[in-house]
Amino acid sequence: MERSGQSTRSPLGDEAPGLRRDPPGRSACGPGTSGHLGRAGCASYIAGRPGGPVYRLSIAMMTILVTSACEIPPRFVQESGEIDGFLARRAYRSACVGLTASDESLREYTAEKLAEYPHIKAATDCVCEALYDADAGTFDAAVATGLAGSHRDDLASCLAPALDDERIEGDDRADLVRVLGGMDAKGAYDALASLVRSDPLPSVRAMAAGAVRPSPAAIPLLIEALQLDDEAQVRAAAATALADRKDDAVIEAITTAAASDPDGGVRGAALRAAVSLKLSQTDDMVCRAMLEDPDERVRLAAVQSWKGTKRKRALDCLDRRMKAEEESGTVRAALLETLGASPSDRAALMLCDNIGIWVRRYVHGKVAYEIEGADIVRAQNNRDWERSYACVAAAIRQGGYSCYGRNYLGHWMRDLGGKASTPLCPGMRRN
After folding, report:
1. How many Cα atoms sit within 13 Å of 161 on the Cβ side?
2. Per DSSP, what are the bridge partners of residue 15?
3. Could you report the per-residue pLDDT of 109-127, keeping only the tens digit for each?
4. How far, CA to CA in Å, does 142 sit from each of 123, 150, 243, 252?
5. Which is it for strands 132-133 and 138-139: parallel, antiparallel or unpaired?
6. Using CA of residue 32, residue 35, residue 38, residue 39, what is the dihedral sign?
7. Residue 375 burial (CB < 10 Å; 0-12/13-18/19+)?
8. Would you tell me how many other CB atoms lie within 10 Å of the CB of residue 18?
9. Contact at 8 Å (CB) between 8 and 19?
10. Helices in 182-311 by DSSP H: which ranges?
11. Extended beta strands in 163-288, E state
């Protein structure tokens, strides 16, 4: 009878073919010897036997394969928690069902989560299929939105062909550009770059200009669009996209557009971009635009660019803007907000000292609260309430106000604990 452990017979009783009987006391990879397998053979033997790394890896792969083969996806998914549960159990095909949900937010969430598994083919395939249906000529904006910030070129390449689909047009095409541009993938930028120059729709060209902003290779295209595109919205989008790009060609294009583009929206966008570049000439550009540009969009951009400033040069220009008449209520409101955000005591005093001028100039015809950018006392009070009583009292002493101006200042004085008349003006009702 053979000793236990030395038999080379199969479970059926036959000699196992190809196996070599080890002499008593020796094994194929016994201690102190390389065995008849040799050193390389021993390493393979140890790795592949139960508990070895190759064995464990093969078991893991088999588990995934068996799980996938036995997985029966549900007909529908209703909650994001279900997606998390499927992914925790590696039930990727079940998680993919979330991409067909009627709830857009659930489709977006599902795409975001599945994109985190680039090594799982089933996950990649179902996201790719959900992004764009070439047969139907449709794309799923919710699924694409779920990929915002994704670096996955493979998924970008699934959506990019939709740009060539003539059935996707108008607002849908602009939306396609938006969601594709939301992906932080080179493939997405490359697909969008040519649209800046060639797409017939201005809205698409403008959207594409904003979408390719992170791509350095797009700078020449953006400069060309800023200088040559016939549509103002495209030029403005290009100017915005060039912000923070401190390059000689960019600086020249931006400063030229800020000074001379025929459209105020483009000049305003270019001015904001110039401010972001922190050029030596920026202060002069901003002050000149604030005081002289005929388009309120440019003056607004100039005023907002100095929000919260405490620099003397900026405050000097803002003070000149406060004392000069401003017909735009939007710009007036921005002026009050900009000075109110400044930590400078001088900015607080500017709000106080200009109450009289402001109320005489803008508060007439109706109550101040109905006039955009007219409520200067509120701005002063929010910034420096301890001085409010003195500021309003000084303004009342100046006189020269309309009935509505006297009513406005009188109510503020009463609210601050003082006494003042509050005349009843046309259209007002006595309480």
Report:
1. 13
2. 9
3. 999 999 999 999 999 999 9
4. 17, 14, 29, 39
5. antiparallel
6. negative
7. buried
8. 6
9. yes
10. 186-198, 202-211, 219-228, 232-241, 248-260, 264-277, 282-292, 296-305
11. none
Cβ-count burial 21-42 (b if 16+ within 10 Å, e if not): eeeeeeebbeeeeebebeeeeb
Q: Could you give the 3-state DSSP secondary structure of residue 102? A: coil
pLDDT digits (tens, 9 = 90+) for 375-404: 999 999 999 999 999 999 999 999 999 999
Q: Tokens in use for 139? A: 């794309």
Tokens of 361: 């100039």
Answer for the pair 263, 232: CB distance below 8 angstroms, yes or no: yes
Burial letters 400-416, b for 16+ CB under 10 A, else e: ebbebbbbbbbbbbeeb
Cα separation of 97 and 95, whole Å? Answer: 5
Q: How far apart are CA 288 and CA 206, in angstroms?
A: 28
300 burial via Cβ count (<10 Å: 0-12, 13-18, 19+):
buried
| Burial bucket for residue 191 (CB in 10 Å: 0-12, 13-18, 19+) | buried
Q: Would you state the structure tokens that stand for residue 336, as one six-digit string?
A: 């009050």
Q: What is the pLDDT of residues 319-356, one digit of tens each?
A: 999 999 999 999 999 999 999 999 999 999 999 999 99
Q: First vs last Cα of the chain: how many Å apart?
A: 118
Do 212 and 221 form a contact (C-beta atoms < 8 A)?
yes
> Is residue 138 classed as helix, strand or coil in its secondary structure?
strand
- For residue 132, the 8-state DSSP code is E
